[in-house]
Amino acid sequence: MNALNRWFVLSAVSTLTAGVLAAAEPAAPAPGWVDFGTLTPAAEGKFVEVNLSEGLLKFAATLAAKQEPDAAGLIRNLRHVRVNVLDLTDANRAATVEKVTAIRQQLAAAGWAPIVDVREPPKGDDVRIFAKMRGEEAIEGLVITVIDGDHEVVLVNVVGDIKPEQIATLAEHYDIKALKHFQPAKPKAS
């Protein structure tokens, strides 16, 4: 995974979690929530699962408010964050890559807007980010899928009420060039 992609994923995760970890699924799936299904970790590989509930996210926003008010405003509007990271080995590579491909296809079929698509073949990064829009005023869900060559898979689902201006402000503050001029795709007419 190149430095920009790794920094983006790690920054997003650390900013959104604000150091608070807990295992809790939302009581009722909110718009923007995606079920990744069961992920099969490699017996000898790394497996990370982080689930942050709405209450913990509000707590994190309170902690971040003084030092990072823009980030705190974004975190305060989130309902759930799930992050999965798992190593790929010969035992789980094919099934895991197939699952990520299926998730991407389901998101596209459900009208999620693809907002980032980075592919560096052969066996390089394969990053796709999808957004579930609520009209033109907010993102209800964000899904980040990363296949880091033959090494690992990262899946992130952020659920909440994310305003485009919040993304632009954070991009400016943290100098994330790819998001500075973020314009959400127009939702498809049904």
Features:
six-stranded antiparallel β-sheet, 6 strands, 190 residues, 33% helix, disordered N terminus, alpha+beta, 5 helices
How would you concisely characterize the structure shown here?
This protein has five helices and six strands.
- The level of helicity is 25-40%
DSSP E strands, number? 6
Task: Calculate the mean pLDDT score and round it.
Answer: 79
Radius of gyration, in Å, reads: 16 Å
Tell me what the structure shows:
With 190 residues, the protein is of the alpha+beta class. It has one domain. Helices cover 33% and strands 29% of the residues. It contains 5 helices and 6 strands. The chain has a 6-stranded antiparallel β-sheet with strand order 1-2-6-5-4-3, sandwiched between helices. A hairpin with a 5-residue loop joins β3 and β4. α2 packs antiparallel against α3 and α3 runs antiparallel to α5. It is globular. The protein starts with a helix and ends in a 16-residue tail after the last helix. The N terminus is likely disordered.
Write the topology of this structure.
Elements: H1 3-17, E1 47-52, H2 54-64, H3 69-76, E2 78-87, H4 93-109, E3 113-119, E4 125-134, E5 138-148, E6 152-162, H5 164-174
Antiparallel strand pairs: 1-2, 2-6, 3-4, 4-5, 5-6
